[in-house]
Design brief:
Length: about 325
């Protein structure tokens, strides 16, 4: 029953939706509803009950992107520059582990044509910032995005044929057609992470890489903040650490070949809008205070910070 919830009435607990172990424990209630459970075997944490389809569609409507400072078709250049800086780090990591795809032909008296651009898929591509960057660096970009609002914006930037609106499981791509797949801030949002990774594995060409960035329950910020950790949100259905990420990868015929603590580009203007939407008893007033003190130029200046996330590169098992 990989990827499915089941109830073990004998132990009054939930079966783990990743490893199927019956040894799970309820940890605490989220203030917005649902209970966070933890598997005692693979250590994944998960939300139960999950939001239904109508709740998810409402959650990922245009209002979801207010935390980015976006509204309608208006662009927020500070947010774009900040997120592009983060995605530049992610793309460099993909290139580091990707077989050479220079995109250049061989010169000389009988030059060979340049090879086809490597195809890259961003699952959870939001408004398409990562894919726009990838296109400038020689990739052929494709995206999958659940939010109809974000998908529409991404299509305007990248073309209607490049973006599928829905889930990865619903998308139709040829098997083995991608040199790289990116899942930045995605795996914690999906209903069935094993199933999602199984679909991703089927789309990976020989030598392809899969990048995953996701909150890390083994991080220092999680240890310090406990149930007040800023990544505990109603739209986050799963929470991984190194052990549970390796487990979900194994069940999709994937292996982790590299893992590190993740850094993100951030700025005060972005944090100010984030903590206005996702209010935190300590960080909201602190960020508001710093935002008031800082001159406008400093509010939009990027800095790099690890905020309790990890980034991993995965490949198919032989």
């Amino acid at each position: 029953m990989n990827g499915q919830f089941r109830t073990n009435f004998l132990h009054s607990s939930l079966g783990c939706p990743v490893c199927t172990s019956p040894r799970t424990k309820a940890r605490f209630f989220l203030k917005d509803g649902g209970v966070i459970h933890r598997c005692r075997h693979c250590t994944v944490e998960f939300l139960f009950p999950q939001p239904d389809e109508n709740q998810l569609k409402q959650l990922y409507s245009e209002s979801y992107y207010a935390a980015w400072g976006l509204s309608g078709q208006l662009e927020n250049e500070s947010t774009r520059a900040m997120k592009t800086a983060t995605f530049r780090l992610r793309l460099a990591l993909i290139r580091r582990f990707l077989p050479d795809h220079s995109g250049l032909g061989v010169g000389g008296p009988n030059p060979t044509p340049a090879p086809a651009k490597p195809r890259i898929l961003d699952v959870g591509c939001a408004t398409g910032y990562f894919l726009q960057l990838a296109a400038t660096e020689g990739f052929q970009p494709f995206g999958v995005e659940y939010s109809s609002y974000a998908a529409a914006r991404a299509r305007l930037a990248l073309g209607a044929d490049a973006i599928f609106q829905g889930t990865l499981e619903e998308a139709v791509f040829p098997n083995g057609s991608f040199a790289a797949i990116a899942m930045s801030d995605l795996l914690e949002h999906v209903k069935l992470p094993v199933t999602t990774l199984q679909h991703a594995e089927s789309l990976m060409a020989p030598g392809a890489v899969l990048l995953i960035m996701t909150p890390d329950t083994g991080s220092l910020s999680h240890t310090i903040m406990g149930h007040r950790w800023t990544h505990y949100k109603p739209e986050h259905l799963f929470y991984f650490n190194r052990r549970s990420l390796a487990e979900v990868a194994k069940r999709a015929n994937l292996r982790i070949i590299y893992l590190e603590r993740s850094k993100k580009a951030l700025n005060l203007a972005y944090l100010h809008t984030q903590f206005a939407v996702y209010r935190h008893w300590l960080l909201t007033p602190l960020v508001n205070f710093l935002h008031r003190l800082a001159p406008q130029k400093l509010r939009t200046r990027n800095f790099y910070l690890s905020i309790g996330e990890m980034v991993a590169i995965l490949k198919k098992n032989a």
